Amino acid sequence: MLRTIVFLGIMIWNISLFSQVNYQKYFTPQALRIDFYHTGNKEQETIIWDELFKEPQWAGNPHNLLDTLNLGNYLLKVYDLQTNALIFSYGFSSLFQEWQATTEALNGGSKVIGATLRIPFPISKIQLEILRRDAKNLFSRQIGQWNIDPQSVDIRQEVRARYDSLIVIQKSGDPAEMVDLVFLGEGYTSQETAEFAEDVWRLSERLFSVEPFNNYRSKFNVTAVFSASQDSGVDDPNQGIFKNTPLNFSYNTFGSQRYMMSYDSKNINDLASAVPFDALAIVVNSEVYGGGGIFNLYTALAADDKVSSNILVHEMGHSFAGLGDEYYTKDVAYQDFYPLHVEPWEPNLTILQDSANLKWKPLVEPGTALPTPWDQEKYDQRNEEYVQKSAEMRMAKKSNHELNQLKDNYTETTNSFFEDHPYGGKIGAFEGAGYAFKGIYRPALECLMFSNRTLIFDQVCQRAIIQRIIFLTQ
Ligand SMILES: [Zn+2]
């Protein structure tokens, strides 16, 4: 109860002023890296703590120590042990909560998945607490607690990053005042160093060509860390391909071919510790479409697929701004990912229980119907026909040329469907989002979180990205 009062007091009072004083009082400029494991089954989850490391610099914003964005499935809270004051909080998501919606979990399996968080290094003893959202999406379930003495000899201090080169793509200022984006190379051999450099330059340019990243480019530091891989490429189990790579990324995560993630949190975070960072993107040496992004974990993408830059920007929507997927096609690994009676925390998804208080209401033009009619049946039918037809063509071993032609035709019809639509480019509440045909609504017809046909975030998604940039920099 005391904690609630303290927290509310901070909310009402000026957060930045309070935290500014706060930082010097409670923290040193260094970072504390906390390694831990999510463990459990489809219903239960427990945090098992692992190792602690001291790192030279914390990259976050010392003016905003308490996370006010309400993003992520989990919330880390840090208390000063002596006074019980809440001195730091941080929202995040994990691969584990996604795994809980897979068939493996629904069939009774259990799992352990590693993760890492970084906080400013405390001066005095602290208590960590990890909370998870409950059925109403409130952070009421404590799944882990740990007391830490910053003087403990067990806090490791060695330099963990082993890398071959650092590429500074853009240096705009001190990490405390900037968004620090770090690219890590995966699956590039030492002979492919130049290729990695080309890939990260190209991808970074593309990211900063998209709004709002374009407008806020001067708020970013961008660095790439290269560690040579033994083998070239990455695991693709469905093709029988297994490679020895530094970060152990693989296609077919949770049985979804294009989902390319890694369970190797230790190695990812060892390499990432080469530079202070707020956001991680892993660039994987592959031409096969794939990637993934989890809020405050990382973005991963195949660098050489022809839509790789679109994947980077889409996945950054997840990992940087906590945006949800707006698409609802059938080929995803999750079942009933969002309960239809609870408002999702994602800034771009709603169940539209109360259209008068829609969370993106200020961006809706007066007179726009909520829900917004958009001929979903027509769109779905065309999509269904396309999926069926391309499956038939694959079975009949038709040429890539013919398959591409079908795809191009479909893209063209879909583009004109959206372009000619009376609500094209407008904000409303369009049914079909978050892997569900019905019951979940997205803000616009088209957005990078809906499809990778265009490189445009709708205004609601843009607003969420800007809020995160401001949180990290002002
Ligand atoms: Zn996505």
Note down, in words, how this protein is organized:
It is a single chain. This protein is α+β, with helices and mostly antiparallel strands and 474 residues long. The protein folds into three domains: 2-148, Peptidase M64, N-terminal domain (Immunoglobulin-like), CATH 2.60.40; 165-321, Collagenase (Catalytic Domain) (3-Layer(aba) Sandwich); 355-454, no CATH class. It is built from ten helices and 17 strands. The chain has helices at 2-12, 15-26, 95-99, 103-106, 193-207, 265-272, 308-321, 376-395, 400-419, 459-473; strands at 27-40, 45-55, 74-80, 86-92, 111-122, 126-133, 139-148, 165-170, 179-186, 220-226, 249-250, 261-262, 279-284, 291-294, 298-302, 430-433, 436-442. Strand 14 and strand 15 (298-302) form a beta hairpin. The longest helix has 20 residues, at 376-395. Residues 1-21 have low confidence and may be disordered. The structure holds zinc ion. The site of zinc ion has 3 residues, from helix 7. Zinc ion binds at residues 314, 318, 325.
Largest sheet: 6 strands, mixed
Distance between the termini: 30 Å
Known CATH architecture of the largest domain: 3-Layer(aba) Sandwich
Q: How many whole angstroms does the radius of gyration measure?
A: 22 Å
CATH superfamily membership of the largest domain: Collagenase (Catalytic Domain)
CATH fold-level name of the largest domain: Collagenase (Catalytic Domain)
CATH class categorisation of the largest domain:
Alpha Beta
- Helix content, binned percent: 25-40%
How does the helix and strand content classify structurally? alpha+beta
List each distinct ligand once: zinc ion
Q: Shape from CA axes?
A: globular
Q: Give the number of helices.
A: 10
- Largest sheet, order of strands side by side? 8-10-9-13-15-14
**Helices and strands, in N-to-C order?**
HHEEEEHHEEEEEHEEEHEEEHHHEEH
Q: Into how many domains do the coordinates divide?
A: 3
Strand content of the residues, in percent?
Answer: 25-35%
Mean pLDDT: 92
Low-confidence spans: pLDDT under 50, at least 5 residues? 1-21
**Record field, number of beta strands:** 17
